[in-house]
């Protein structure tokens, strides 16, 4: 299991955190620029709207919900614990619980800007994108010691990106969040992952 915390990662996490704060502030104030950006993204997605896409969106939202996040997490913890990596499992559990609390805190503190119909209540940061990012990150960590070939790593990363893109587009298309909410979720998850990696390197990397 490879988790490191390099200086350049810390600097990029700080930069991402500053952008997140700025974006969240603009979103909470219903900035004209942010609202225009969100409407543009939503309207572009509507050009491809059809019943098959709607079905994909609903399936994507189901499998990236809170319930499935907990199911994925429990399965991951059981597998990792069975491989005698209990400290890593404990770290993943702490990262998940604190990450969820952090997400809820920001969602309660930031009022997302409305969508094209000016009536949809949206979330900032995006819930499903944040949860799926954490799960994909955990899966990639667990697979690092199993998948060693360059082709296998590229395939895993490609699938991860594809799943994350589908989740993001589905969450916007179903009026659950907007473009700024997706960007906010990616920034927040990146910052949190970097912070928790530092915690792992400092206190958990004993196995």
TrEMBL record:
Q: Which UniProt keywords apply?
A: Membrane, Transmembrane, Transmembrane helix
Per the UniProt record, which residue ranges are transmembrane? Answer: 59-80, 87-108, 120-140, 152-170, 176-193
Q: Which domain of life is it from?
A: Bacteria
Q: What is this protein called?
A: Uncharacterized protein
What is the organism of origin for this protein?
Answer: Paucilactobacillus suebicus DSM 5007 = KCTC 3549
């Amino acid at each position: 299991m490879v988790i490191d915390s390099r200086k350049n990662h810390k600097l990029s996490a700080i930069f991402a955190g500053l952008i997140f704060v700025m974006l969240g502030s603009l979103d909470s104030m219903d900035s004209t620029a942010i609202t225009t950006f969100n409407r543009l993204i939503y309207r572009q997605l509507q050009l491809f709207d059809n019943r098959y896409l709607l079905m994909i969106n609903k399936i994507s939202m189901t499998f990236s919900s809170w319930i499935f996040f907990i199911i994925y997490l429990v399965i991951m913890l059981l597998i990792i614990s069975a491989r005698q990596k209990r400290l890593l499992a404990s770290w993943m559990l702490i990262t998940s619980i604190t990450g969820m609390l952090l997400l809820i805190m920001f969602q309660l503190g930031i009022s997302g800007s409305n969508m094209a119909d000016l009536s949809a209540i949206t979330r900032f940061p995006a819930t499903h994108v944040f949860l799926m990012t954490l799960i994909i990150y955990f899966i990639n960590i667990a697979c690092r010691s199993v998948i060693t070939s360059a082709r296998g790593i590229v395939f895993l990363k490609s699938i991860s990106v594809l799943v994350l893109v589908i989740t993001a587009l589905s969450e916007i298309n179903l009026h659950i969040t907007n473009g700024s909410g997706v960007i906010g979720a990616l920034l927040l998850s990146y910052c949190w992952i970097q912070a928790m990696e530092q915690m792992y390197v400092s206190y958990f990397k004993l196995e």
